[in-house]
Amino acid sequence: MSEISRQILTVGDLNRAIAASLEERFDTVLVSGEISNFKAYDSGHWYFSLKDEEGQIRCVMFRGRNGQVGFMPQSGDLVEVSANLGMYVPRGDIQLTIQSLRRAGMGGLYEAFLKLKAKLAKEGLFDADRKREIPSHPRSIGIITSPQAAALKDVLSTLARRAPHIPIVIYPTLVQGPDAPAGIIAALKSAEKENAVDVILLVRGGGSIEDLWAFNDEQLAYAIAQSSIPIVSGVGHETDVTIADFVADLRAPTPTGAAELAAPRKDQMLQELEAIKQAMLQRVRQRVEREAQTLDQLALRLAHALPNPDRMREQIMSWQQRLNQAWSVRMNSWKRNQEHFQSQLEMLNPQRTLERGYAVVLNIADGVHAVREPGELQVGPKYEIRLAKGAAVVKLGEIKVN
Length: 402
Prior knowledge:
The chain is of the alpha/beta class. It has four domains: about 5-105, CATH 2.40.50.140; about 135-265, Rossmann fold (3-Layer(aba) Sandwich); about 265-345; about 355-395, no CATH class. It is built from eleven helices and 14 strands. β2 and β3 (about 55-60) form a beta hairpin. The chain is flat. The N and C termini lie far apart (about 90 Å).
């Protein structure tokens, strides 16, 4: 007999034990059925039952999840749900906590998704031991997405706030439609060929399963797995899951989350550097104190053992002076290194470049990105010029390329 069966349980304890057992036994389940007794409360939560000719089960879908459904269900609707099986302890009712809901008849894509997921999992593409470590301090960051995607603006804004000193390379591609997988694969290969970035952010905003289907492509999954550059996947909303998420080295809940995971905060880097400095100084002080104590002990022994204590005291003073000089030289060296590191970090600040008289020309008509070649300039569209003390929007009337 198990330990729990030998106890005298309250009804609440028994229900909680059953709920825990159900949650451990069942992973996310996919269930189809007809909605019955649907009620949408003022809190935003939905309560209903799913039924078929053989039975029914209670369901709840909380406000944070049902906002992604896209339609208001009604009793009698045939739907398919992804849910966690559990128990509502106060009533002792077994229920489904719905994570996603769609109209019935869209299961073909989900079936294809599950089949491909199982195949790639069997081949080891999702194994943790093949995942590459995301660099904690990347020298540059690549972004693969559509230039028109709203996700790009969010990612650029997050990176500019957290780590303005890190260069960014954008690899534009389609992220929706039948041509998107080939475009994303080509962008990955381009990034590998250039070898200009230390980590890649594969991002796009949320959408339906059809909108995100490009990220469930089998060949794209192999390309991600074979990439020599670590990849952070930030596709859709937190509830959206694609094959690319499983294959990528790190999955972020949103595009903004991907940027936060890839870029260290500048202030945190400075804090870490200061902490290292203080730790080094503390260790040096401790070493000097230990050596000074040892020196005192040796001096005492010499004073008792040698016939000429005055001469030995002079030697001790000489050693102390040498030790102090060595300590001063070492401290000056550490201070110079500290100042050098700080100056290097400051040189990476884009604002310093602007203050030296340079400017950045941004194309704001076709997505926000820096103009790198004269050939990209056109008569007509507006451009934003960022200077050391502000920015101006200009419109070119004539272009002469030297």
